From TrEMBL:
Annotated transmembrane regions: 52-73, 79-97
Keywords noted in UniProt: Hydrogen ion transport, Ion transport, Membrane, Transmembrane, Transmembrane helix, Transport
Name of protein: ATP synthase protein I
Keyword Translocase: no
Function of the molecule: A possible function for this protein is to guide the assembly of the membrane sector of the ATPase enzyme complex.
Top-rank taxon, per record: Bacteria
UniProt xrefs under InterPro entries: Atp1_alphaprobac (IPR016989), ATPase_put (IPR032820)
Family label: Belongs to the bacterial AtpI family.
One Pfam family of this chain: ATPase_gene1
Keyword Membrane in annotation: yes
């Protein structure tokens, strides 16, 4: 007889408890941001990585565009393009080294 009796259904999680947990999590995060104890170290590293990437791309593209334009107007193809591309790369690496030697704030 016990085999034929249905088992009680498991209790569903109360939606009010889930909502309360979510509100508490958001309140704790907002309080941590407000007091300055939130982890912003990851954000700073992400911004620094983007800055390094922008320096590399900007140096190469800037040197190539200026060198290519001057080559077009002066008829010295490809020498100014190569020279200014090389200078752009050197400038980018100099800026990256300067950024990496900066003390953390």
């Amino acid at each position: 007889m016990a085999e034929n009796e249905p088992e009680p259904e498991p209790l569903q999680e109360d939606a009010r408890l889930a909502s309360l947990d979510e509100r508490l999590r958001r309140a704790k995060h907002q309080e941590a941001v407000r007091t300055g104890s939130a982890d912003t170290k990851g954000d700073a590293a992400y911004r620094l990585g983007n800055r390094v990437l922008a320096e590399l791309i900007g140096g190469m593209v800037g040197g190539a565009v200026v060198g290519g334009t001057l080559d077009y107007f002066l008829g010295t193809s490809p020498w100014l393009l190569l020279a200014l591309l090389f200078l752009g790369i050197i400038s980018a690496f100099r800026n990256i080294i300067r950024l990496s030697n900066r003390r953390p704030e």
